[in-house]
Design brief:
By secondary structure, the protein is an alpha+beta fold. It has 13 helices and 42 strands. A hairpin with a 2-residue loop joins strand 1 and strand 2.
Length: about 800
């Protein structure tokens, strides 16, 4: 009997412990299931993103390159689409573009294609024991079907070709398609250690070698242009004959930076080159790199559109004749080209030169300009033109014309037409498209930020009128209140236009407008969808439980909200975009408020997968706030933020948040804040200044203490201008702030409100960030942790300011969603 009792006790004990073990594994299984669903949903959204670049039309086909995130390899893959304009449905499947291909530039006629390739040279070819990279220019002929020539770009002539076509870089064909002009890095001087031994061959070059200079800034070490431009210091211009393969430097340029052999200090950085339509000159942008008196220290260039620059012209007829000769004989007897000319000597900012088709011996040179310039990192631009004489190969004196001037307040120019309740705010764009002129040369097409949307506008060169084009690629969906963002890419051969359209809940579509669109611009235009691209899988990850799938145009909706705040001197609407999940019913939603970075940028109504992920999958309302200081609302509203950062922008975000709450869809007790860079600055400010409104925070590379950031960042001007005001940064001098200036910077910083913070806070840092040093976020994290607040730190060792490496980006957004799940 006793034995049976003991056996019963043992069995009961085992069963109880087994049940406990099963129960203990349930939370783990649920957690794993939760992680899998979040990862699968994020993958679904980023796979649906369509990011186009390098679009052009030749020979009846539109060619566009799509960039796709690849989580498996932590990289981006590129796919080329070739779509026949006459029958888009017959487009062939896309082809993957090798990562070695850095640029593809078609010739004006479409018969040739220049392809820039970066390749590794095996050590057994050069015999030097170590692989090294080189650039090769491939010339494809017969409408791009035949590889006719491969031209190695010698490292003895220049460094890497600049492929940053969004800003510094550029590759352009000559009108007769015999030559290319491009921008490339200037080589560093030859240096050697004090202890280096030399061979007899080295002794021949002894006079050119700077002994002990390998660690000297301006000699062996280059002074670069900050965040994202760590390998860009000095750029010069070079011409390449595509038949002979000969390369020559354009010597007649400001400061002749390309001939510097003893320093890399230089005076100007030269980029955005194009041939004149007569082929006698190259026209380009030159940035002040010390030669203009406003750059004693090179400041950050990325997202900084106010760095002093002008447009120049350099005759190259003699240089091109030299390159045509397939021999080095008699080159010393060639006649030098005339000196360069500054086309915009009275403008502080001029960039993005573009030529119209010539007519009656004259072409139009158009460019973006701002005569006085501005201290803020972005601003409203004017459109200027000058006449170009085809016979003389130069600008016609006195022909400069201001086609569209800078707009101070919305509506002071234009015909009064409104978009989302806003009259024409001025031109807010960084560059003109390569082929922006209509075939008859009478109009320029471009895309411009107009409040919270991006719109395609037609500009008459005759009277300067600006007309937003009215079209909707989804007009078959019977929509009356659509607010899409649209982009102009290029003209077609018959005078039509290639455009894109995107919405917060609809990825980018590629489409076209008919050749009659310019005459019908003010009416509703018909448009054709050329490609509505399917999702491209970003990962092999496939969990057993499927995520809620994303379907374009459904899952969540959005609307633009405008309010006129009572505070501030410049009375312009604060515009916001409110995203709402479809299946909320009558339940009030938690809200994530997202002020953008910059601060002089804007969030448009375009598809951004991370915010769609938070809204549809996370079931959060998302509010993008374009506070005063954003682009697209006139120059006065943009400049009103200078000197008021941390106050006016904070109050704007609060006002927009309260307006969203007043819609009745938002739970006022469940409001969080999320932002990066200046958006992170605002997230920290709002957590400290309004702790009872913003209950949870997530921030990327936030600026926390301007006083400790000012001498460590690549943009010290931001610290002065945004806290002290316009005119407070000394462009011709570099110095630390005074005690009074330091005190004001502290007062305008989130760290001044640290004691009030109650929100659980997630901080993400890119440890290679040169814009906002990681010490800023670390200071905030440790300060919050010392207050015993729930705090989490994400450290991305290989990321810079944007935290845009594919895996790091994914990790941050999934962490952010789960942080709000836990605390909101």
């Amino acid at each position: 009997m006793l034995a049976l009792l003991l056996l019963f006790i043992i069995i009961s004990s085992s069963a109880t412990s087994g049940l406990s073990a099963i129960k203990s594994t349930i939370p783990i299984m649920n957690q794993q299931h939760h992680h899998q669903r979040d990862a699968a949903a994020y993958q679904d959204f980023v796979s649906s993103a369509v990011d186009f670049s390098g679009c052009y039309v030749r020979n009846g086909f539109v060619t566009a390159t799509r960039s796709v995130r690849d989580i498996d390899t932590n990289s981006r893959r590129s796919f080329v689409y070739n779509i026949p304009l006459s029958s888009p449905s017959l487009a062939a499947p896309p082809m993957e573009l090798s990562a070695k291909i850095k640029a593809r530039v078609p010739s004006p006629s479409g018969d040739k294609l220049a392809v820039l390739v970066e390749e590794s040279v095996p050590s057994d070819i050069e015999g030097k024991g170590q692989d090294k990279k080189r650039h090769v220019m491939e010339i494809w002929t017969n409408k791009g079907h035949q590889l006719a020539k491969r031209i190695v770009l010698p490292s003895t002539i220049h460094g890497p070709v600049c492929t940053d076509f969004a800003w510094f870089g550029g590759i352009s064909w000559s009108p007769d398609e015999t030559a290319l002009v491009y921008s490339a890095e200037v080589n560093k001087p030859k240096t050697a250690s004090y202890f280096a031994t030399s061979s007899k061959e080295d002794d021949k070059e002894e006079d050119d070698t700077i002994v002990g200079g390998q660690y000297t800034l301006g000699v062996g070490k280059k002074e670069d242009w900050g965040e994202k431009y760590g390998t860009t210091a000095l750029l010069a211009l070079f011409c390449l004959n595509v038949s002979t393969g000969k390369i020559g430097a354009v010597e007649n340029v400001p400061a002749c930076t390309n001939t510097a052999s003893q320093t890399t200090d230089g005076n100007h950085v030269l980029g955005q080159p194009i041939f004149s339509p007569c082929g006698q000159a190259v026209v380009y942008t030159g940035w002040d790199a010390g030669g203009g008196g406003e750059m004693p220290r090179r400041l950050g260039a990325i997202y900084c559109y106010h760095r002093p620059c002008q447009i120049y012209s350099s005759p190259v007829s003699q240089l091109l004749k030299t390159l045509e000769i397939d021999t080095t004989e008699d080159e010393d007897e060639t006649v030098a080209d005339d000196n360069f000319v500054c086309i915009t000597p009275n403008d502080r900012l001029s960039r993005s030169p573009r030529f119209s088709p010539p007519s009656d011996g004259v072409a139009k040179l158009a460019y973006l300009s701002h005569t006085k310039g501005f201290d803020t990192h972005n601003g409203c631009m004017a459109l200027h033109t000058s006449d170009w004489c085809m016979s003389k190969g130069s600008v016609v004196d006195g022909s400069k014309k201001v086609v569209v001037d800078v707009v101070t307040l919305p509506g002071e120019r234009g015909d009064g037409e409104t978009i989302s309740g806003l009259k024409f705010p001025g031109l807010f764009l960084n560059q003109l498209s390569d082929r922006c002129f209509s075939p008859d040369g009478k109009f320029i097409l471009t895309s411009s930020q107009w409040g919270s949307v991006v719109r395609v506008v037609s500009i008459s060169l005759d009277d300067g009128s600006v007309t937003p084009l009215s079209f909707d690629m989804r007009d078959g969906d019977n929509r009356n209140d659509a607010e899409p963002s649209q982009q102009f890419l290029c003209f077609t051969d018959d005078g039509g236009a290639i455009v894109t359209q995107s919405e917060c809940n609809y990825p980018t579509m590629l489409g076209s407008l008919p050749s009659s669109f310019l005459t019908d611009a003010k009416g509703g235009l018909s448009s054709q969808v050329l490609a509505e691209l399917p999702s491209a899988a970003t990962s092999s990850f496939s969990p057993s439980s499927a995520a809620s799938g994303f379907k374009a145009g459904s899952g969540f909706s959005f609307k633009i909200m405008n309010i006129l705040p009572e505070h501030g001197d410049v009375k312009v609407d604060v515009s916001s975009i409110l995203l709402l999940p479809d299946d909320a019913g009558n339940e009030k939603l938690p809200l994530i408020v997202v002020p953008h970075g910059g601060p002089h940028s804007a969030t448009p109504t375009s598809f951004v997968p991370s915010y769609g992920y938070l809204c549809q999958h996370g079931k959060y309302a998302v509010l993008h706030v374009n506070f005063r200081g954003s682009t697209g609302f006139g120059q006065a509203a943009l400049e009103s933020l200078a000197g008021n950062a941390g106050t006016q922008d904070v109050l704007d975000v609060v006002a927009a948040t309260r307006a969203a709450i007043d819609t009745g869809a938002i739970d006022p007790e469940r409001v969080g804040i999320c932002g990066g860079s200046h958006g992170g600055f605002l997230a920290a400010h709002l957590s400290g200044q309004h702790p009872d409104l913003f209950k949870v925070a997530s921030m990327r590379n936030p600026c926390i203490n301007i006083a400790s950031m000012v001498t460590a960042t690549d943009i010290p001007d931001w610290c002065y201008v945004e806290t002290l005001g316009i005119g407070k940064y000394e462009w011709d001098n570099f110095r630390a702030p005074s005690k009074e200036e330091n005190d004001k910077m502290w007062d305008n910083s989130p760290i001044a409100h640290l004691e009030n913070v109650k929100a659980p806070t997630l901080v993400a840092l890119g440890m290679k960030d040169r814009r906002v040093p990681p010490s800023q976020g670390l200071e905030y994290f440790h300060s919050l942790r010392a207050k015993s607040l729930p705090t989490k730190l994400l450290v991305y060792e290989d990321c810079d300011h944007a935290i845009d490496r594919v895996v790091s980006e994914a990790d941050f957004w999934i962490n952010t969603k789960q942080w709000f799940d836990k605390h909101l």
